[in-house]
Specification:
alpha+beta, Chemotaxis protein chec, Surface presentation of antigens (SPOA), six-stranded antiparallel sheet, four-stranded antiparallel sheet, cell projection, flagellar rotation, Flag_FliM, membrane, flagellum
Length: 330
């Protein structure tokens, strides 16, 4: 059985109790010797490991960034969406935790079985509606009286979120999310059995001056076929996988066709502005290059080779003598 790790506050409280005499060290040792029993609630079966929960959180951090971009462009106002928490709880507990009247978007995520729910707090939903209808984004909590036009507007907005959902999940599986339905009463939405384990991703959402929560409910049945891909080993394998040889070969061929600027430097010198203004025909300046020393050939202004000048087919040319170490790497 794994040992329980105390927080810093718990450690401080324990030390304080021992110092003041509220707790006896001998009693503490006696308690440690006694057999410890941990209560396990089978109604709250933990079907996902901590690593898998972290992987789900990582996926939805990307989803939150994509949603921020989408809603910013659609609503033309300040939007900030971040992951607040990722928990696994019974479906019944999720239903009890959300408002009695709210916006529930039901998504089908083929080829996975089951459906996922995106619950949008009424404050956020009506703030979005107000922006879509030309307002400042103020929230008016009358979600139980959604008109047909308001329903269509919300549906269209969250239907566009399927693109972001598909992209966020693409690291695990290629899905084709589809917004199937919009509901405002959680009691009418019996997605799975009440004791079924679901993962709830809570997103802190701020749209203009309005803030609230967006909760994504993912049943175990949806994630079951891809649970193995939620492990740390899978992510590490994907990050360290070898590059595609065909892609590397194509990239190499394209690089070979890239043009670079090559120039041989005959020599350099420094003159004053007065000398420049007084320049006349047949004036001579001495360069810093000796005639018995090789020239420098620069590639994109980086010294690359020592060369010697000459002529080739009646054209001025240079012949490479040696590479200059420390120049641009091949």
């Amino acid at each position: 059985m794994a040992e329980e790790v105390l927080s810093q506050n718990e450690i401080d409280a324990l030390l304080s109790a021992l110092t003041t005499g509220d707790m006896d060290a001998e009693e503490l040792k006696k308690e440690e010797k006694e057999k410890k029993v941990r209560v396990y609630d089978f109604k709250r079966a933990l079907r996902f490991s901590k690593d898998q929960i972290r992987s789900i959180g990582r996926i939805h951090e990307n989803f939150a960034r994509l949603l921020t971009t989408l809603f910013s462009s659609q609503l033309r106002t300040y939007v900030n969406i971040t992951v607040a928490s990722v928990d696994q709880i019974p479906y019944e507990e999720f239903i009890r935790s959300i408002p009695k009247v709210t916006v529930l978007n039901l998504y089908n995520v083929e080829p996975l079985d089951g459906k996922i729910i995106m619950e949008v707090n009424p404050n956020i939903a009506y703030g979005m509606l107000d922006r879509l209808l030309g307002g400042k984004g103020d929230s008016v909590n009358k979600i139980d009286n959604l008109t047909e036009i308001e329903t269509i507007l919300i549906t269209q907005l969250f239907d566009k979120a399927t693109i972001s959902l598909k992209e966020a999940w693409s690291s695990l599986i290629e899905t084709e999310p589809l917004l199937e339905d919009l509901e405002i009463n959680p009691q009418f939405l019996q997605l799975v059995s009440p004791n079924e384990t679901v993962v709830v991703v809570s997103l802190n959402t701020a749209i203009g001056e309005v803030s609230g929560m967006i909760n994504i409910c993912i049943p175990h049945i949806v994630l079951e076929p891809i649970i193995s891909k939620l492990s740390v080993q899978y992510w590490m394998q994907n990050e360290t996988k070898k590059p595609d040889p065909a892609a590397v070969d194509k990239l190499s061929k394209n690089l070979k066709n890239v043009s670079v600027d090559a120039k041989a430097i005959l020599g350099e010198t420094t003159i004053s502005m007065q000398q420049l203004l007084n320049l006349k025909s047949k004036d001579v300046f001495a360069l810093n290059q000796s005639i018995d020393q090789p020239l420098i050939l620069k590639i994109n202004d980086e010294p690359k080779f020592h060369v010697q000048p000459g002529k080739f087919k009646n054209k001025l040319s240079v012949q490479v003598l040696e590479e200059i170490k420390g120049g641009v790497e091949e």
